[in-house]
Amino acid sequence: MFTPTAARIVLFIYALLLAGGGTFGYLKAGSRNSLIAGVGSAVLTLAALADTFWRPFGGFALAAALAFFLSMFFNYRYVTTKRKFMPSGLLAFVSLAVVCMMIISSL
C-alpha cells in the first residue's frame, strides 16, 4: 500500500496547495477570507503532519478528518458557484484523494 513517508509527502504538498490557493485568492480577488482560510487550513494540515511522527495513527486520522471537512466545504462551494470546476471542484477532488490516502496509511 502506501508507506507513512509517502503519506507525509502528500500531506506536505496538500498543505502547500492550500496555502498557495489562499494566497492566490487574496492576490487575484483581494479576499482576506481566502487568505486566512487557506493559510489556516495549511497550518492545521502541517500540525497533523507533525503529529504523524509521534502518533502515526492519530496524526493520519486527524489529517483525514481535516481533509474530509475541506472536501465537503469545497464540494459545497462547487455546487453553489454554478459548477465552475476551478478551483473548488479541483480542491474537492484532491481533498477526497487525500482522505483516502490517509485512511489507507493509518491502517
Written overview of the protein:
The protein has helices spanning 4-29, 32-54, 56-80, 85-106. α1 runs antiparallel to α4 (85-106). The termini are close together. It has 107 residues and is mainly alpha-helical. 90% of the residues lie in helices and 0% in strands. It is built from four helices and no strands. The model has no long low-confidence stretch (mean pLDDT 92).
List the helices and strands and how they pair.
Blueprint (H helix, E strand, L loop, with lengths): L3 H26 L2 H23 L1 H25 L4 H22 L1
Helix pairs in contact: 1-2, 1-4, 2-3, 3-4
Structural class: mainly alpha
Helix content: over 70%
> In angstroms, what is the radius of gyration?
14 Å
Strand content: under 5%
Shape: globular
**Biggest β-sheet strands, sense, barrel:** none
- Low-confidence segments: none
DSSP helical segment count: 4
| SSE succession | HHHH
The average pLDDT is 92
Distance between the termini: 10 Å
Number of DSSP strand runs: 0
Features:
4 helices, 107 residues
In brief:
The chain is an all-alpha fold. It has 4 helices and no strands.
